[in-house]
Amino acid sequence: MVSPPPTLMVFDDFNNNSYDGGAGPSTGPRKRGRGRPKGSKNGTRKPKKPKAYNPNSKLIRSCPKFESGITKAERESGNLEIVASVLMRFDAIRRRLHQVNQPKDILTTASTNCMRLGVRTNMTRRIGPIPGVQVGDVFYYWGEMCLVGLHRDMAAGIDYLSAKRSGVDGHAATSVVTSGQYDDETEELDTLIYIGQDGKGKNRQPCDQVLKNGNLALEASVRKGNDVRVVRLEKHNNEKVFIYDGLYLVSDFEHVIGKSGFKEFRFKLVRKPDQPSGYAIWKSVEILRNHDLIDPRNGSILGDLSFGAEVLRVPLVNEVDEDDKTIPEDFDYIRSQCYSGMMFDLNVDIQSLGCQQNCESCSHQNCSCMHKNGGELPYHNNILVSRKPLIYECGDSCPCPIDCPNRLVQNGLKLHLEVFKTTNCGWGLRSWDPIRAGTFICEFAGVSKTKEEVEEDDDYLFDTSRVYHRFIWNYDPQLLREDASKQVSEVINLPTQVLISAKEKGNVGRFMNHSCWPNVFWQPIEYENNGVRYVRIGLFAMRHIPPMTELTYDYGVSCVEKNGEDEILYKGKKICLCGSVKCRGSFA
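The chain above was modelled as a monomer; its predicted structure follows.
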């Protein structure tokens, strides 16, 4: 896919005492480092011993020859593509650190390495929107917001410009994050009561908040009337999720006695009108999840399109025309692949196919399935670590249980998905849940076909022989002090063409539309059943996806032409209506 970058020398570990990389701000003020008491005259301070070199550490101090692929101008001010790239590269490093069982400081290591080596953007502090960051975007770690410039302060919930940098008279707040550590009032959709920062004295005892730093900046924003970005913290399945809710104005503030018995600042922020929904969508979907059996929407057509085949029901809804109760064309809902023709019969002993009886676990180095995957599990906590030419999951001949960490695609849906009517592209697919990058969404289930069996007018055909837009999703070894030769190939390598038709039989995957700027990608998975190996197609999240966002993947094109020496034209049989900035005009 890309030429491997040259092997680079990196410097040894350094004493990092900056921030936690993602968990959020500390609950109290930063502590002054230990030193001699003020006024002491006896002796001299002994220099600190440098931190011992740790050959197993993944932290990088600097790497002068590293090429981040991000220009100096793009680091100062980004765009949609640069922001997506930075977030994907950060999360790829985080997943890799989990895969190799990094003992601690995973988020610190991932975010610090990105910052040190220039994998970041929007470094210029600014008031107002952030280039490439959209209202409703979700973040799973505090460090992600820092890397893309949404909230630059690495520890505090209030980010601001000083009087020198604001370009106006005095301080000015740029963004606030509701971290859950103060008594913020967050239930209203268009207003927010934000409690000021600090309020801890010596020995972390409560005290009155004072008008300085972030508090002073928010107070100044009341007078200036400047835009302030608001990020709201929510929890989903016991995970923190940060939701960017757009621009607010600080309308008022008061200094009153709080629940602690000490004075605190209470700032009222009001959301500016005519912005896309962010937090409002989150709360509306929360209602749907809490009332799963009753859909309160007028556009509801079917409570479960799978008719009980899936563990989680799949609603069908038309909010474009609530009076239209037409259902999709007739098809049989199936949970997984139906193999009529395409299979790989290896004609080998069944006992040699799966895990061995003496295998301690599927994460053990002696496991034969582990060896097929390069000696490492392809998943961590049900999240795909890296794209590969082919992933091998444990099959029916393996003695491991159904919850084996090497069984994911075969276990079906784990997300609340729904089929909905789009404005221009027929039926589409979206999720009630926020989706983390690398999450398995669904299988593209259908009937395996040979080339001769495929119908020419089949609009529900998946074809691995098409030409797909190339992209890099895996981690960069050099960002983790690993040799560049260890880069995992992302080039799909199948022994034969795979054709799957979901026209007559299929699952929710048949409703996922095409996009030239997709948020989902496909990954071939090999699975063994009764001595025969089959290839399934798993659909995974390319990046973090907010709830109720349409899920799309690249259908590919059947023809590629060269226009001159460098330009490549992708030509498909159907006109593309994805509307993205990357739209190539056609697909399939």
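The mean pLDDT is 86.
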